[in-house]
Design a protein that fits this description.
Chain B: It comes from Nonomuraea turkmeniaca. Chain B: Its main location: membrane. The complex is a heterodimer. The radius of gyration of chain A is 20 Å and the shape is globular. Chain A contains 11 helices and 15 strands. In chain A, the strands form 4 sheets. In chain A, strands 10, 11, 12, 13, 14 and 15 form a 6-stranded mixed β-sheet that branches. Chain A has a 5-stranded parallel β-sheet with strand order 5-4-3-6-9. In chain A, strands 1-2 form a two-stranded antiparallel sheet. Chain A has 2 domains: 5-184, Nitrogenase molybdenum iron protein domain (Rossmann fold, 3-Layer(aba) Sandwich), CATH 3.40.50.1980; 190-335, Nitrogenase molybdenum iron protein domain (Rossmann fold), CATH 3.40.50.1980. Chain A is an alpha/beta fold. Chain A is 32% helix and 17% strand. Chain B has a single domain (2-336), classed as ABC transporter involved in vitamin B12 uptake, BtuC (Orthogonal Bundle). Chain B has helices at 2-34, 42-51, 58-92, 104-117, 124-147, 155-179, 181-191, 200-217, 221-228, 231-236, 241-263, 269-281, 285-309, 318-336. The two termini of chain B are 23 Å apart. Classes of the chains: A alpha/beta, B mainly alpha. The interface between A and B is medium-sized, with 29 and 31 residues.
């Protein structure tokens, strides 16, 4: 179990790291590689998610970024020279609608980065989220190819922390883009922020109207059920902050604290009124499929009642995308019965 | 002849010994149904067993739909692995022979990978059949390669062919998995042997093969005794060596193939238990086979029960428990027990 689980979750996590949607970036990619000309001369510095201050004599212009982080930067008009993704850039949620011409694709699978190609790009900055639980940047976590890790030797690595809030994450990439010379006051960006604020307001309202509603973020698998630990899932912490009662599991896996692992015998340990189902594997038929496959999945009353909604797990990076996802959750909260799990 | 007196005396004790093992197996099976990662009171377990129909409570579902099939599968798979190991060790006269070095695990894995990548098949229930076919195909291949040449499938050629086929198939699997992370995720179900997440459909799917194979295996005692004397001696005694060997391999293919397909590669049982049986019974395969058949499921179920109660509410796979406990146990047997020659 131990041997593969981190890889699984890491894979899954990084597949969705790439969260920034096309809605946030449409129209801004025309800035192309204009970042170079717009960049201030330097010296440049940025405080990494790990707390370390990364400095350079000149403001970086040749950036290699992980998929979602690249999309976040592109939404501010910073075009990277190279991208490494965790799946095909044609299907990656963040990248599929972006114009990637002129950007070198350095990897389309989790844990695999073509470092030789990356070196040929002569990067002066690498951008990947900082994962506090693993103390590593995206693409450099435990379990990736040893060869891929050499990416970190090409240039300084910075990233915003997957910390306590998606709002901090979005703000962090805005700051990073700003430090790299981007103008962050375009009308689209302002509109997305506004949309986000409105989404938060209606979300809070809906949650307040269902005061008894409890939710749990879950991910079923062939041999056990995983219950997410909000402490390491910034969007779940945001939901809690906005009044949603997201269940904190009692005993997260000490080696990989993103989850508490429940054997299928214990699938009913928590009885939420609404299940936030891991969005990375969620399909409309998922709930019924697991009910058929696992005799105890429907012993979770919310699952039996079909009170299941996709949870944007570990991938949100921008206000725009968060707003879209929040609206879906608000609808689910409004439709939920706060007495199912009691 | 004193040695035949010895054997007779031994046999008179071995019969009742088998009865004791039978009782022990029943006890362990009882433990396996009553203990687990979920604590269910004994009366409730008994009530569920008495009704033989789930009354809708999770405790009865866990007992009847999770633990009973798991236990039955554990008994059949354990017995199959032990007997397959004993036969392989006898036929190849190789004390280290087990299903793993005859290419069975690698054959199963390569077929599952093929199913996922080429045929686009998904779902544990379907993989069982591919794994089964792969295990049998690998074993047939090993036997065919070893049979080349005038002297037929000699023990040394079988061992070498097994190692070669295993290495060849493993490299194919690795090659594909390296370039396709999704396949890796699907294959994980087989990486560590486990009894978790296998329910009635898996049990009823493989049970007929296992039961038929187990019954057939008991007829090989005399033939294996002959082979143990060496090929020439066996021929001198009127044995059809080639035919015996082919038939024995057929039975092993069915037993180990079905077991591996159902539960993934489970280590140590097939390797170590036959040695324990030989230690108890002496060199007579007419006893070694039934002893292996009863000892193996006892070991497997005990390890599984242990794995289910040590990390509640999580579970450890039986493969992990066996690996951790099996290695020192084997060292102990080698060091302190006088192992009988194969």
């Amino acid at each position: 179990m131990r041997a593969w689980r981190p890889a699984l979750v890491l894979t899954a996590l990084s597949v969705v790291l790439a969260g920034c949607g096309s809605a946030d970036t449409s129209g801004t990619t025309t800035a192309a590689s204009g970042a170079a000309s717009a960049a201030p001369a330097g010296p440049w510095s940025f405080t990494d998610g790990s707390g370390k201050v990364v400095k350079a004599d000149k403001t970086p212009t040749r950036i290699i970024a992980h998929a979602g982080e690249a999309a976040a930067l592109m939404s501010f008009g910073i075009k990277p020279v190279g991208i490494y993704a965790d799946e095909s850039v044609k299907t990656d949620a963040n990248l599929k609608d972006l114009d990637l011409t002129g950007i070198e694709i350095l990897g389309q699978e989790w844990g695999k980065i073509d470092v030789e190609k990356a070196a040929a790009l002569r990067p002066d900055l690498i951008v990947g989220d900082w994962w506090p639980a693993e103390k590593a940047h995206s693409g450099l976590e435990e379990g990736v190819d040893e060869k891929s890790k050499k990416l970190a030797e090409l240039a300084p690595v910075v990233g915003v922390s997957q910390g306590k809030s998606i709002v901090d994450l979005a703000k962090g990439y805005e700051d990073l883009a700003k430090s790299l010379g981007a103008a962050v006051d375009s009308p689209e960006i302002a509109a997305n922020k506004k949309r986000f604020e409105a989404a938060v307001a209606t979300f809070k309202e809906a949650v307040a109207a269902k005061s008894g509603l409890t939710v749990a973020a879950m991910s079923p698998a062939d041999d056990k059920v995983y219950v997410a630990n909000p402490e390491y899932a910034p969007e779940l912490l945001d939901f809690q902050r906005w009044g949603m009662k997201v269940i904190n599991p009692d005993t997260p896996d000490p080696g990989f604290p993103y989850w508490e692992n429940l054997s299928w015998e214990n699938a009913d340990k928590y009885q939420p009124d609404l299940i936030l189902f891991d969005g990375r594997s969620f399909k409309p038929t998922s709930n019924a499929d697991w009910g058929k496959k696992q005799p105890t999945w429907f012993k979770i009353k919310a699952a039996k009642a079909g009170a299941v909604v996709s949870w944007p797990a570990y991938w949100l990076h921008t206000y725009g995308h968060f707003a879209t996802e929040l609206d879906k959750l608000t609808a689910a909260v409004k439709a939920a019965d706060p007495n199912i799990g009691d | 002849m004193s040695s035949s007196n010895n054997l007779a005396r031994r046999a008179s004790a071995l019969g009742p010994g088998l009865a004791v093992l039978c009782v022990l197996l029943a006890l362990v099976a009882f433990l396996s149904v009553t203990l687990g990662s979920r604590s269910i009171g004994l009366p409730e377990v008994l009530r569920a067993l008495g009704n033989l129909d789930t009354d809708g409570s999770i405790n009865s579902t866990v007992t009847l739909e999770l633990r009973v099939p798991r236990t039955l599968l554990g008994i059949l798979v354990g017995a199959a692995l032990g007997v397959a190991g004993a036969i392989l060790q006898g036929v190849t006269r190789n004390p280290l022979a087990d299903a793993g070095i005859m290419g069975i695990n690698s054959g199963a894995a390569v077929f599952v990978v093929f199913a996922v990548t080429v045929l686009g098949v998904r779902g544990a229930g379907v993989y069982v059949w591919f794994a089964f076919a792969g295990a049998i195909a690998a074993l047939v291949l090993v036997y065919a390669i070893a049979s080349l040449g005038r002297e037929g499938a000699t023990p040394i050629k079988l061992a070498l062919a097994g190692v070669a086929v295993t290495a060849g198939l493993a490299s194919v699997t690795t090659g594909i998995v390296m370039t396709n992370v999704e396949t890796l995720n699907e294959l994980r179900f087989w990486q560590v042997g486990s009894l978790a997440g296998r329910y009635a459909p898996v049990l009823t799917g493989v049970a007929p093969f296992l039961i038929v194979g187990l019954i057939a295996s008991l007829g090989f005692g005399r033939a294996l005794n002959g082979l143990a004397l060496g090929e020439d001696m066996a021929r001198g005694l009127g044995q059809q060596v080639t035919r015996t060997r082919a038939a024995a391999f057929g039975v092993v293919a069915v037993l180990a193939g079905a077991a591996t397909a159902a539960c993934g590669p489970i280590v140590f049982v097939g390797l170590v238990v036959p040695h324990v049986a030989r230690f108890i019974c002496g060199p007579d395969y007419r006893w070694i086979l039934p002893y292996s058949m009863f000892l193996s499921p006892i070991v497997l179920l005990l390890a599984d029960v242990l794995g289910r109660v040590v990390v509640v509410p999580d579970e450890l796979q039986v493969g992990v428990v066996l690996g951790v406990l099996g290695a020192p146990a084997f060292v102990g047997i080698v060091r302190y027990g006088r192992l009988s020659e194969v």
